[in-house]
# Entry
Amino acid sequence: MSNPQLKILQQYVQLSNQHGATHVYRIAHKMGIFKILLAGSGTLESLATACQVPVRPLQLLLNALCEIGVVQKFADDYVLAQVMQLLTSVDADLGDQSWQSLEDYLQPAASSQRDTLPEDPTPYRARSHSLQWIDTPAAMELVQLLEIGSRRKGLKVLDLGSGSAVWSLAIAHHDPESEITAVDWPTPLETAAKAAASIGVESRFKMIAGDYWQVSIPPGTFDLVLLGNEILLYDDQQSQQLLQLAAEALKETGEIAILETVCCHEEARLTYALRELDLALHWPRGSLRTVEQLEQLVQAAGLQVLQYEPLAAPPHLTGLMLVGHQEPAP
# Structure
């Protein structure tokens, strides 16, 4: 068999396995296997009794779950893998519910209904913020790229649309002289405040609750303004206004760190495609942009690009664009 034929065969097996694994995961979630194991380990017999299913079919299902990597077996006991202990609390169905509207989205009638969609991105932002922990490795890389604690030290940081504040809290944790002001609605700020307390930076973590378009933000105060996946929520005009809002809060030498979803690596192409589709499903007024399009927005807002770096950390989807005030003409 030739190499091209082998590649096609391997691709078929991979796609078939992915499809089968999806069904195995979905039925296990529906049966409540993960919830049962979250409470503690179980034997094949005890799980069969709890789920009210025959032993042999359940054994085969558990074998597949072990191969997927969401369940582990030790002697006669089955336990949740660490990744599932996390997923059961934040995204147990792996977004299954969020994809239920895909078929409707693809119908011709959906196009005519998009102009009547709600204009409030809060529900989409809430979904995104619930998964913000995924960006923790990228946030730690951001700290290194910005040389927080050395070249950039003691910064006053404004986190606009902070969510759980994964980006700004990484800065606060690394530099004990930094001060964070997070702006968002009360619910995400509660999560951010708990996270700040958990790493011992609550005394340097201030909050402004409300819509960042409406609340009072002290002008000319901050060394760094963070915009983490906020520009993608808006059209070009609104995005420029958001950049100008951020710029008004900066000191003369301050910087804006735009952290946007960009396909940074070849291996992230599927993740990027799915995230773009998810955005279209739940907030069709939004848009993922290329690096060149982001640069155009920055320039249209009267600012200048100082630096661009793709973050290499998983999930390989964040580009860092540092922006500052334009230098006055000589």
